[in-house]
From TrEMBL:
GO terms for biological process: response to antibiotic. The lineage of its organism: Bacteria, Bacillati, Actinomycetota, Actinomycetes, Streptosporangiales. It is a peripheral membrane protein. It is found in: Cell membrane. PROSITE patterns: ABC_TRANSPORTER_1 (PS00211), ABC_TRANSPORTER_2 (PS50893). This is ABC transporter ATP-binding protein. It comes from the Bacteria. Keywords: Antibiotic resistance, ATP-binding, Nucleotide-binding, Transport. It comes from Sphaerisporangium album. GO terms for cellular component: plasma membrane. It holds the Pfam family ABC_tran. Its main location: membrane.
Amino acid sequence: MRYGANDVLRGVDLRVHRGEVLALLGPNGAGKTTTIEILEGFRRRSAGEVSVLGTDPDHGDEAWRARLGVVLQSWRDHGRWRAAELLDHLGLYYAPYGTPARPRPYDTAELLALVGLTGQAGTVIARLSGGQRRRLDVAIGLVGRPDLLFLDEPTVGFDPVARQDFHDLVRRLSGLEDTAILLTTHDLDEAEKLSDRIVLLAGGEIVADGTAAELAARFSGKAEVRYSRDGEFFTESVQDATGYVRELFARHGEAIGDLEVRRVSLSEVYLAMVREFESGQHHAARELTGVGA
Ligand SMILES: Nc1ncnc2c1ncn2[C@@H]1O[C@H](COP(=O)(O)OP(=O)(O)OP(=O)(O)O)[C@@H](O)[C@H]1O
């Protein structure tokens, strides 16, 4: 993607599989929104190949669009509508695109229950709380029972309980409905908890791609093992945690207690990579993560 002489995405190569939750993680201006807008067909790419559900988004028709769910920023229109009314109304659009295997739209009551808004079915949208409105946004993204769901910073403004509920919801969707989910987030904790895979974007390039554990392991290669032996506490930084623990038990057996194995956290990896990238050493970061190798 190029604006004028400025390349804001370069060589971005990624695949999302059916039923997979992929988090696009990166600092401000990394190119996350641009990437998903190209995939959604909202933005025309300057060059490169893109296929979404088998179709080039630049040429996607209504039937193709009906298979996508998009959750952008909070839904501000239709403030006087009641939540259930709006979902009923939006659902009509998807009805012609239903199949026996994937009936469209979602039943409104079922959908409201899924996002935890059953009690607000008759509430006027303007009177929903911020978190409730965001849940409604998600319901709007889901009403067509999408094969692929885009979530742009889905949990901004959620309290911890709403966030946990939302995480459960995303897990259920990818598991039960086989919906592929592509979400952008700044929240490392969220990326780690929610996604099967993380693609880290920095400066318009993919600098890392893998599961949270893989990224942490590839970057540092180490894990921290804590344990007690005969009441004395130890902390070791080791390359092969499984082997180390096996050896530990083989040697000391029941004398070992309080075992804890901690991977370097994703946030440590993330900060190190972004810093490395910003200091111009991103090729070193690529080598470390194996991306582009
Ligand atoms: N219409 C545009 N014209 C020129 N440059 C743009 C345009 N839209 C985005 N950009 C630039 O593209 C880059 C990537 O922006 P993008 O919004 O995709 O980043 P992001 O990772 O989503 O950031 P944030 O986390 O801040 O939302 C930024 O440098 C931005 O300034």
